[in-house]
Design goal:
Strand order of the largest sheet: 1-2-3-4-5-6-7-8
Distance between the termini: 42 Å
Radius of gyration: 18 Å
Number of domains: 1
Order of helices and strands: EHEHEHEHEHHEHEHEHHHH
Low-confidence stretches: 1-8
Structural class: alpha/beta
Shape: globular
Number of strands: 8
Mean pLDDT: 95
Helix content: 40-55%
Strand content: 5-15%
CATH architecture: Alpha-Beta Barrel
CATH topology: TIM Barrel
Largest sheet: 8 strands, parallel, barrel
CATH class: Alpha Beta
Length: about 300
């Protein structure tokens, strides 16, 4: 198959994009003071973009109105210092369209478009869903392929139909299938790859990805930026491998046990910003899990600080 060709993308995604957590008070209401602190810390530490309304932000436990309220608050808090991507993933196309229109109205720079979960659409149905969201927003799009959560993959039929749309700029690839990385790099070079599988970040960068959407950057922004800088900006893959090796224990903790978001929120809390409880049905970490996470973070920081000091 010959590589697909199209015009240059409307937006270039480069660097570390953080899918924001949503801090809550004990009663379940949104803690906007804590969210403001998270945003300011990430901007101060140098991440390259923020994502509101992703699964890391517990979007599945929020109404469309809440998600738009959080996104508007985030946009206002950013004050033009970073691009904002608004997640539009939802079970119903109508909800995704409402989120897309809201993103356009608040002046977001881009939207994240996922497969509707649970319904298991065909590739043609999924493509029509994505194109309807595109029409509603008319903003740059980062697709989001996460078949483990959505039930189906954004396959070649989908990519052939959607990938030629003017607004489709990038894809966050979270399948974990290394063959998907090869497919995207070789057959769809006009769609920018964004790493969405943390333990494959090094491989994504080696295959030309310029961006990494990483939940762990909520609490370890500088360490995630260090890997991006080593691989993408410096082209130093020896250094990159050392940084990635130091990060692997964290990847195992985040991905094992089914408590990914809980670990990310606990990491934020360990940084001194109280991210609060999870919304049901999820529960927080137990004491042993918190201690394990804290130990892994401490070791990771020390190792990467040494690597960075060596230049």
């Amino acid at each position: 198959m010959a590589p697909h060709k199209t015009t240059s993308p409307m937006m270039t995604f480069s660097g570390i994009y953080t899918p924001l957590v949503t801090p809550f008070h004990e009663g379940g209401s949104i803690n906007y003071d804590a969210l403001s602190a998270v945003i300011e810390n990430l901007i101060d530490k140098g991440v390259h973009g923020l994502i509101s309304g992703g699964s890391t932000g517990e979007n599945y436990a929020q109404s469309v109105a809440e998600r738009l309220e959080i996104a508007r608050f985030t946009k206002e808090q950013i004050r033009g210092r970073l691009p904002l991507i608004v997640g539009t993933g939802a079970m119903m196309t109508s909800d995704s369209i409402d989120l897309a229109r809201g993103a356009r109205e608040m002046g977001a720079e881009a939207i994240l478009v996922a497969t509707p979960p649970y319904s298991v659409p065909t590739e043609e149905e999924n493509a029509l869903n994505a194109l309807a969201i595109d029409r509603a927003a008319d903003l740059p799009i980062m697709l989001y392929n996460y078949p483990a959560r959505m039930g189906v993959s954004m396959g070649e039929t989908f990519l052939d139909r959607v990938g030629g749309a003017r607004n489709v700029c990038a894809i966050k690839e979270s399948s974990g299938d290394i063959n998907r990385l090869h497919l995207l790099a070789r057959e769809y070079p006009h769609i920018q790859m964004a790493c969405g599988m943390d333990d494959q970040a090094l491989e994504f960068f080696a295959w030309g990805a310029q961006s990494w959407v990483c939940a762990g950057s909520n609490f370890l922004p500088e360490e995630h930026i260090a890997l991006y800088q080593a691989c993408v900006l410096e082209g130093n893959y020896d250094k990159g491998r050392r940084i990635m090796s130091a990060m692997m224990p964290l990847m195992r903790v985040l991905e094992q046990g089914g408590k990914f978001i809980q670990c990310v929120k606990q990491g934020v809390t360990l940084n001194g910003i109280d991210s609060g409880p999870m919304r049901p049905p999820l529960l927080g970490l137990d004491q042993e899990e918190r201690q394990t996470l804290e130990q892994v973070i401490r070791q990771l920081r020390a190792e990467i600080a040494t690597i960075r000091a060596e230049g």
